[in-house]
Write a structure and sequence with these properties.
This protein has 266 residues and is of the alpha/beta class. The protein has 10 helices and 5 strands.
Amino acid sequence: MGLRVGVVLGSDHGYSGTTGRLVTELLDRLRADTAVEVDTVLTTDLDLGSSCPACLRCMTDGEQACPNFDRAAAARRVMDGADLVIFATPVHSFQVSASMKRFIDHFAYLIHRPAYIGRPAVLISSAAGGGHDAALEYLRSAVRRWGFHTVGQLGANGPGLARPGYRAKVDAALDDLAAEALAAPTEPEPKPTTADLIGFRVAKILVDGGRDEGPVDAQYWDERGWFDAQWWTDQKPPFVANRIATLVEKKIRKGISEGSADPYRG
């Protein structure tokens, strides 16, 4: 049957850099067990400009209204056609690369209209020093809002790969990651966490409150029955996590209606 893998690579060096080589090593392990079809997009090739224009037209009028829609379309095709998506980035100043950040920003409408519910993702980062925790957590959270669930991740120290002991540990981690990736497309989506359920409730509030600005988001939710749901799918959320999410939603709605919401101060 084989496996269709999409790769979103956020490195200026493509597959010749450390991040790209780690992706290649993972793909080689997947190919050792099954036929693999790979489709790749380099975020630097998308030519998305210096920053998302933040016009919000992708949310109010539909993604086709984005001034960069045509340039971003290649990335959407890669994600749409994949059984599993690998998101890979070098760590720059304790965060994802600039081109990976631009890529994420230009798909902000997927936070309101998630298209990848049930789709597994693997995350990879490389760094000369540290920062994997912050970069991978941001990347995990971003793609989760689009519907992806992360089945495994790996952050590797580039200079450390020259040391045999560390190299052996990375190889073992890649073996584990390959096993997780191979199993993921046929496994059920994991139960939503408290953070997932709060994210769902917040998205519901944003979409419902934005009807006057444009009908696109609300129509998407109406068609899927999400306004009356507790989660994106029919899977029953864990009771305690769902109860906490319900309380958070009530607090947010009360703050909005009474004008009592506070600015963030940390």
